[in-house]
Amino acid sequence: MSKYRKLTHVVYKCDYHIVFTPKYRFRILTGQVMSMLEQDIRSICQWKEAELSELSIQIDHVHMIVSIPPRVSVSDFMGILKGKTAIKLFKSYPNLKKKPYWGNHFWARGYFVNTVGINEEMIRRYVKYQENKERQEEQDRSDFTLF
Predict the structure, then answer these.
(1) Measured at the alpha carbon of residue 27, what is the angle toward residues 133 and 129, in degrees to the nearest 5?
(2) Which of 12, 93, 126, 129 is catalytic?
(3) Pairwise CA distance, residues 54 & 60, whole Å
(4) From edge to edge, which strands make up the β-sheet containing 62-67?
(5) Is 126 among the catalytic positions?
(6) Could you say which DSSP state residue 22 is in?
(7) Would you give the end-to-end CA distance of the chain in angstroms?
(8) Which of 74, 75, 85 is nearest to 43 (CA)?
(9) pLDDT tens-place string over residues 134-144
């Protein structure tokens, strides 16, 4: 990702580390749901002219590093992203609505956001290797339960 981005009347560097989860942190983001979600996140970023530099979809949460133009607030961006993806997931997989806890809400209400600045490289590595770390921890837990 280049250091600065340009629009008609502004030069900016608005990079954010964002984490959000499905409602009740259900472990649902696997297989086709995960691939559809990744494709939708990328297309929404392209639509809103946000540059997605890192994306890691875990089984129960999503990490991303994204550069959002200053004309779009982080709150608006997340509202659009979570709203559009939830609608598409419920339309594509109607059985998701049958879970007793979902209602019409796929995502948890909040999200975590942090500006990426001096610690950019550390955050970038964390997002990139988070999946490997969690997979190893899951393996360690399953190995432990065998005894």
Answers:
(1) 20
(2) 126
(3) 17
(4) 51-57, 62-67, 15-20, 112-115
(5) yes
(6) B
(7) 47
(8) 85
(9) 777 777 777 66
How distant is the alpha carbon of residue 71 from its chain centre? 21
The beta strands (E) that lie in the chain are given as 5-6, 11-12, 15-20, 51-57, 62-67, 112-115
Q: Is the distance from CB of 145 to CB of 48 less than 8 angstroms? A: no
- The interaxial angle of helices 74-92 and 31-47, nearest 10 deg, is 140
Q: Dump pLDDT digits (tens) for 69-116.
A: 999 999 999 999 999 999 999 899 888 777 666 677 899 999 999 988
The total number of structural domains in the chain stands at 1
Task: Write down the pTM of the prediction.
Answer: 0.78
pLDDT at 130 over 70: yes
Q: State the CATH number of the domain containing residue 106.
A: 3.30.70.1290
As a whole number of angstroms, the distance between CA 82 and CA 12 comes to 25
- Domain extent at residue 32: 5-144
